[in-house]
Amino acid sequence: MPLANTVYKITVVPGDGIGPEFCDATIQVIKAAWDGAPQLAFESYEAGADCLTRTGIAFPDETMPACKDADAILHGAAGLPGVLYADGTEAGQDFTLLLQKELDLYANIRPICLFDGIEGPLRNFKLGEIDYIIVRENTEGLYASRGGGTIVGDDVSTDTLVITRKGVERIVRTAAELSRQRNGAPRDGKRRVTVVAKSNVLRSFAFFRKVATEVMAGYPDIEVDYALTDAMSVHMIERPDFYDVVVCENFVDDLLSDLGAATVGGMGLGAAAELGDGKGYFQSSHGTAPEIAGKGIANPVANVLSGASMLTWLGNEKNDGDLQSAGLRIEKAVKSALANGSAQTPDIGGTATIKQATAAIRTAL
């Protein structure tokens, strides 16, 4: 256990749009759940589209060292419509993409599960029947071309999809180890890793599947399943109870994880943890929603759950059972406040403001 005078440094980057609102809500909930030692020291830094608009710099020099020095990083959301670079890409994305590269945050973990009290669009599925994790390779794939693609005049543009053996091996091992920690798929209780790739068309995806198969041979206790990317988008609607852990390339997973969140009620419930070896970055998986920024109706749940995941991960890293317990308490409080309706904001069918939803979660603690 850590010494009582230990300080855990949490770098907070609120970001754009509604990001600052739900980062504040998350910190309120964490402080309500954690009143012991070691101390959690939250320090805020800037990055994103709003920062670029005001200062001319999207990712200030002092922010990266603060992230590298932190025990964990909490982020809001990044990007604003119309704040673009000359090549048409969003300025706000620099923070996350550069951080993934610099800290080697290779595993993006996105839970997809039904919450009591939330009526998702898949009404034939009941509580407990949708509960799986999507594991996204976070450092290569199509997004590795960010800033490195080729534009020829005004006629041709190319980006390159990059798949490496190292990248596939470690992300598939992450998926398999997560499966071993779970109770299997809701449908049949089987521990299962589903490898998603458009392997029937692209050599890079065929390579992803080949290496994944080799890795999974070392996990005879886990069933291996395969799905083509397009088919998977149908399976997630028709038989989501079949899945335990799903693993795929960066761009593909970006699409599928958003679809998964929509199937259980919306992006406002989509938490995310981006992990490397000894490094953790936590944010909700949705965007900045500038159209509702400042109106007080943003849904804090995804970011609060990401904050809970941060405490649990940090507790595991530091061998701190109290931090682990605080993370689990926040998860339970969120579920309780959603179930009784007190934390349901307009995007998920309720009437609560962000302040009311935050207060409800704190009360549930």
Compose a concise summary of this entry.
The protein has 365 residues and is of the alpha/beta class. It has helices spanning 19-33, 49-55, 63-69, 94-102, 165-181, 203-216, 229-238, 250-263, 301-318, 321-339, 354-364, and strands at residues 7-15, 39-44, 72-77, 107-113, 131-137, 150-152, 156-158, 192-196, 223-227, 245-248, 271-275, 280-284.
Any overview of this molecule?
With 365 residues, the chain is α/β, with parallel strands linked by helices. The protein has two domains: 206 residues, Isopropylmalate Dehydrogenase; 143 residues, 3-Layer(aba) Sandwich (Isopropylmalate Dehydrogenase), CATH 3.40.718.10. The chain contains eleven helices and twelve strands. The strands form two sheets. A ten-stranded mixed β-sheet has the order 2-1-3-12-11-4-5-10-8-9, sandwiched between helices. It has a two-stranded antiparallel ribbon with strand order 6-7. Strand 8, helix 6 and strand 9 form a beta-alpha-beta unit. Helix 1 packs parallel to helix 11, helix 5 crosses helix 6 and helix 10 crosses helix 11. The longest helix is centred in the last third of the chain and has 19 residues. The two termini are 24 Å apart. The mean pLDDT is 93.
